[in-house]
Amino acid sequence: MAATNDIATRQAQNFVAGLAGATPLGLSSLSDEGRAALAELPVPTRRSERWKYSPVTAMLASPVSSAPAPKSWPESVPANPVPGLDAYRVVLVNGHVVPEACDLPVADGVMCMPLSQAVKEGRIAPGDEDWTGYHKREWVGAVNAAHAQDGLFLSLESGTSLDRPVLVHHHVTGADVASCPRHRVCLGDNARAEVVLWSSASNQASGMVNAVLEARVGAGARLGLDKVQHEHGSIFHLAHEHVTQGKASTFRIHTLTVQGHWVRNELSVLQHGSGAHTVMHGAYLPKGSEHVDNHTTMDHTVPYCTSSELYKGILYDRSTGVFNGKVFVRQDAQQTNAYQQNANIVADAGASINAKPELEIYADDVKCSHGCTVGQFDDEALFYLKSRGIGDRAARALMVQAFIGDVLEGMGSSEVADEVASLLAERHGWM
Amino acid sequence: MLTINNLHARVEDTPILKGLNLQIGPGEVHAIMGPNGSGKSTLASVLAGREDYEVTAGSVDFDGIDLLDLGASERAREGLFLAFQYPVEIPGVSNLNFMKAAVNAKREHQGLEPIAAKDFLAMVKEKAALVELDGRLRDRSVNEGFSGGEKKRNEIFQMAMLEPKLAILDETDSGLDIDALRIVSEGVNAMRDAGRSFLVITHYQRLLDHIVPDFVHVLSEGQIVKSGPKELALELEAKGYDWIKEPVA
Ligand SMILES: Nc1ncnc2c1ncn2[C@@H]1O[C@H](COP(=O)(O)OP(=O)(O)O)[C@@H](O)[C@H]1O
Ligand SMILES: [Mg+2]
Question: Does A392 contact B91 at a Cβ distance shorter than 8 Å?
């Protein structure tokens, strides 16, 4: 055991050494804390409960390094990957913002800029560099804290709202590249914003994307995230979103994993003010030998809050999936209404899913429901469709679309939902 | 239209159809009656191409085509239709999208362009009226939350949409009250014509009062043991099946 641990630790040290060249974002105390934590925190291996089904060991085996800032946005890649989406843009290549390809909103009460610029302009106070302490708990968080490059800085004053979504497009190009984007969103009371987080990668891309997003949603405010992962190549993608919600606020996220070699999404929502509402929906359709892990935490700490969680997966070929949904209902969180559902179809014999709901309820007057299913395609339904002349492929496509339809339906942007549907159709040959 | 010759079929290791012969001409309505478990639904499933059943001997000629050589969807495109004894609920798939996919699959097979949206809706309206299937049901997920009668009406609606050459109705009368039985039967009768044949599987004579067959067959233990004119159904209703359990030589 100890020997394995040593190997993992040594590999981790080598791995991190390749990141030293990263352009410092300028959040120096965060970076220092991250470096210190890297020396202390255990590397996520199979022996850690939270990483049991998604050890980063395979990632550590190939050294990576940070890429220099690109001269321009790659011509072959559309900066806006979503046809018809009318959105502001913050675009990044290998962790670096490409200013010429950005399109930022200018409006009273709205600050939207690269995070590096916000740091330079002194918009982040020294004691306020981080809101979650993720880097003190998790090795992957420490990696991001120590080597964060750039990302979205969005801050809306009370009562303001964006007239269009902000598209944050992160693209990876090149082999063995390490990218550590970091985003920060702050909505004042009653402010409103929609953000589209889009990840892409070229065919030859490999390495690590380690992305962190921290958000604060003020009282009565609404934040919506449409998060789409569509990465070619073979990227190890680690994502962490941490959201804190105020009184009567709404936070919604849709996480759609269209394609990705190895993906771990960690989503954590903390309700701070009563009457808050949270929606966390997602869908994953891995094929080949892809791996997709969704770890979510919904933390109800105050009364009269609601949450609705719905994740749906279809696992093809030899792909593997993980769903872990923690729901805490703290002692004070009376009248909580929490709903969690995870439904999976294991489409091929070689595929598998490890699904685990974890509810911890300490309040007595609450309504919590959860369900978790793992099944196959319904043969009766398939035969019924085929008996009307619909071909096998088309019949399966109808059933898949029906299965994930209620996830796509609730997305903030119908253009993004349509593009996800068409990428999936193309990828799985449903056309 | 359909010639079944010495058909043997089994599920797993259990033989169910044991040398079944049947001939249906164009425009004819044949009824198959028989006790529970005699193999009526098995015959329907085997003809429609359900994969759980293995055909171990025999042949089926469908309008000049070797039916057993085709998959389920190809059979449907060639003009075979099965109204299910137990129609399947498919949450999330709208009835209309389902029918559009089915109509277009058939049209593609015939070398036609996909149907225009306007024409499709007109067709839906016309065919739904035939079985009094209201708009609410048409727009919902396939059979989801439908009553027994609504499901059966939906089967006949689908049949009307797809205009098959041969329709097999598997106990379409079960679970229907007298009004629904009348509606369903009128829907079927409206579709009778010289080029379209029906195989009506039923337990009871009462359906055959409405859909009057040209021939009645008795299925017992995987074989047709007696055939006759429509009056045979009345005789079966009066005497039961016991008197003809033995196969005719
Ligand atoms: N999928 C199946 N698996 C096992 N046995 C079956 C299956 N389908 C039918 N059978 C058996 O085959 C026999 C005939 O069934 P069925 O064709 O449904 O009869 P009917 O429709 O005349 O009532 C019954 O004994 C039934 O139990
Ligand atoms: Mg039956």
Answer: no
Parent domain of A384: 380-431
Residue keyed to tokens 């998959």: B71
Half-sphere exposure of A409 (CA within 13 A, CB side): 9
Contact A353, A315 (CB under 8 A): yes
Question: What are the residue boundaries of the structural domains of chain B, listed by start?
Answer: 2-245
A388 near B CB under 8 A: yes
| Helix/strand/coil for A258 | strand
Q: A74-89 in b/e burial notation, b at 16+ Cβ within 10 A? A: eeebebbbbeebebbb
Mark out chain B residues that contact chain A at CB-CB < 8 A: 48-51, 71-73, 75-77, 81-82, 84, 87-93, 97-99, 101-102, 105-106, 109, 141-142, 158, 162
What are the CA-CA distances from residue A311 to residues A233, A257, A367, A411, B181 (Å)?
A: 25, 11, 20, 13, 43
- What is the pLDDT confidence band of residue B247, given thresholds at 50, 70 and 90? low
Amino acid at B22: L
pLDDT at A2 over 60: no
3-state secondary structure of B109: helix
| CATH tag, B2-245 | 3.40.50.300
* Domain-terminating residue out of A273, A294, A316: A273
User: Which residue reads 């070929």 in tokens?
Assistant: A317
Instruction: Report chain A's terminal Cα–Cα distance, integer Å.
Output: 50
Tell me, yes or no, if A385 comes closer than 8 A to chain B by beta carbon: yes
pLDDT of residue A5: 64
Question: Residue B16 is encoded by which pair of tokens?
Answer: 């169910």
Contacts of B64-69 with C-beta under 8 Å, sequence gap 24+, read B67/B2
Among chain B residues, CA nearest to A393: B73
Count of C-beta atoms within a 10 Å radius of residue A408:
20
Residue A319 falls inside a structural domain? no
Residue A264 and residue A395 in one domain? no
Q: A40-44, A278-282, B33-37, B232-236: lowest mean pLDDT where?
A: B232-236
Burial annotation A153-166 (CB, 10 A radius, 16+ → b, else e): bbbbbeebbbeebb
Looking at the CA of B38, name the nearest ligand: 1
Rounded to a whole number of angstroms, the distance from the CA of B240 to the nearest CA of chain A is 33
How many angstroms away from the CA of B209 is the closest CA of chain A? 28
Subunit contact B106:A384, Cβ cutoff 8 A: no
What ipTM does this complex have? 0.95
Over residues A342-351, the pLDDT tens digits come to 999 999 999 9
Mean pLDDT score of chain A: 95
Cβ atoms A294, A301 nearer than 8 A: no
- Chain B hits for A403, Cβ within 8 Å: 92
Beta strands in A100-232 (DSSP E): 110-114, 152-156, 166-172, 177-179, 182-187, 192-201, 206-217, 222-231
Say whether residue A6 is in contact with chain B using an 8 A CB cutoff: no
Q: Which atom of ligand 1 approaches the CA of B35 most closely?
A: 22
Task: List residues near ligand 1 (CB under 6 A).
Answer: B 11, 14, 16, 34, 36-42, 52
In a domain, A428, yes or no: yes
Cα–Cα distance measured from residue A176 to residue A60, given in angstroms and rounded to the nearest whole number: 11
Residue in B151, B172, B164, B171 with CA at minimum distance from that of residue B192: B164
In a domain, A44, yes or no: yes
